[in-house]
Amino acid sequence: AERACAIFLTLCGAIVFAFCIGSISSLVSQRNLTETHIESELRTIQDFFRLKNLPRNLEIRAKQHLMHTAKSAQHLVHPCLNSLPDRTRQMIIEYIMKGTLDKHPFFVDMDYDCRCFMAEYLTPIFVQKDEILFRALDVGFEMYFVVEGEFEAWNVEDNKVLAKLGKGEYLGEISLFPDISTCRTSTVKAKIDSEVLSLRRDDFYNHIRPHFPDVYEAIKRLAITKQRWLDSAIVKRYAREQSQHRCDHIYNKIKEIQTRKLFVMSRSQKGFNSPSLSPTSMSAR
């Protein structure tokens, strides 16, 4: 009887232990679904870069960007929120990004409704020391809110420092408005490791402008003010020179192709018009 009781208790203990281990494993796997997804994305990046034999430094930079995004804006690397109602999704995203949004005065005093809406269209970007965020005369499609770090803006003509921009500043807002300028007006480089929030032109026009026209007008006033402060004549001159060089290059390439085609056509025409050799003429020769 004692032996049977001992065996029974041992079996019960083993069953309870197995149940606990299974439950813990299940909880761990459920808790780490997002981490598993991120690890899968990192492996995909690694496989892609190895397949294409791309430079190692670009692979490292891509992984750094993914890890920073996963830390600051998890919703951008996992599609789990896509099926939720818009309002619920925006509230969750605002909560996720609250720590980052609170670092910039543009969002600190903003009403909750607008802040939740805008948070969905902001992307956190980590910028390494000495990394160039954008270059003068580049075509721009984003503006940036500086939430950490420091940047230097350089003149397009002689690479002199125009301004130093830190936490709470704005970068690239002119590029959101093609009617003000079609290209970047300066080169911006990170002086130390920094973080920005990017806002794309398409999202700005298609989502924020229709729902919050006051935000659109406020950012446009910022862009106009900065454009007046800059020496736009120099930027326009360099932009014209770059455009002329680009057009000349395209024209010369087209001319080369047309010349080559005309040469081939003329050779073909000569061969077509030349008298054919008959068997009689062949035998006479």
UniProtKB/TrEMBL annotation:
<dbReference type="InterPro" id="IPR018490">
    <property type="entry name" value="cNMP-bd_dom_sf"/>
</dbReference>
<dbReference type="InterPro" id="IPR014710">
    <property type="entry name" value="RmlC-like_jellyroll"/>
</dbReference>
<keyword id="KW-0406">Ion transport</keyword>
<dbReference type="Pfam" id="PF00027">
    <property type="entry name" value="cNMP_binding"/>
</dbReference>
<protein>
    <recommendedName>
        <fullName>Cyclic nucleotide-binding domain-containing protein</fullName>
    </recommendedName>
</protein>
<keyword id="KW-0813">Transport</keyword>
<keyword id="KW-0407">Ion channel</keyword>
<dbReference type="InterPro" id="IPR000595">
    <property type="entry name" value="cNMP-bd_dom"/>
</dbReference>
<dbReference type="GO" id="GO:0044877">
    <property type="term" value="F:protein-containing complex binding"/>
</dbReference>
<feature type="domain" description="Cyclic nucleotide-binding">
    <location>
        <begin position="106"/>
        <end position="204"/>
    </location>
</feature>
<dbReference type="InterPro" id="IPR050866">
    <property type="entry name" value="CNG_cation_channel"/>
</dbReference>
<keyword id="KW-1071">Ligand-gated ion channel</keyword>
<dbReference type="GO" id="GO:0005221">
    <property type="term" value="F:intracellularly cyclic nucleotide-activated monoatomic cation channel activity"/>
</dbReference>
